[in-house]
Amino acid sequence: ARAGYRVYAVDLFGHGMSDKPYGIRYSLDLYALQIREFMNALGIRRAHLAGHSMGGAVALRFSCLYPSMTNSLVLIASAGLRRERNDNLAFRLMRYPLLGEFIILFNFKPVVRLLNSAINTNGLIAVSDDYINRYIMPSRTRGYTYAFLRILRNFGTPPWEVEDCIAGITRPALILHGTDDRLVPASSGIRMHSLLPDSKLVMVSKGPHALMETHASLVNREIIDFLRARR
Length: 231
Hints:
The chain is an alpha/beta fold. It has helices spanning 28-42, 54-65, 89-94, 99-106, 109-119, 129-136, 144-154, 163-166, 186-195, 211-214, 216-228; strands spanning 47-52, 70-76, 173-178, 199-204. The protein has a single domain, classed as 3-Layer(aba) Sandwich (Rossmann fold), CATH 3.40.50.1820.
């Protein structure tokens, strides 16, 4: 925003303080549609889309479905490719009916472990209570457990993959990925770069999954330079 851009941070269905409705199919197509309707409501014809992790997959899917509304893409530790599913034990257990609900309701240790994996590359940095609370706060909203587990249990299945349509994306893309990412491996960023015809890849040495928090200055500089080159 300080560089002169208007920035919107959208909480998609099932995330943050947005609604977490029952009875809908949480998918990339749903989220792409939600972004489209958000843009239409604000009268935005085209936009630069930036997404982290699953948000990167949403941005890619949006560009596949609505190319005329996409200026460019910024993909930070982006998900969306096959064979990148996280095999963390807690996540595997939470995919089982009832067991997942029990873990979410009574044990936040898996959340803390996930945050440590996202922030740390060497296990020496402690995740602060404030950081944990910011991520746990949405869990107190109505429908959180339902939405979180539906997303988790479907992630890594075809409705959450964009690999088949990526090669058709012609918009410029900036890919930022940490070499020490424990959640989405660095090889995924390299492969995404090979699939996107007009992309620039920035590999951050020893960078973890949450690059925009651990390497904020570097990430912001790369994004601003990328956007300015396309004015």
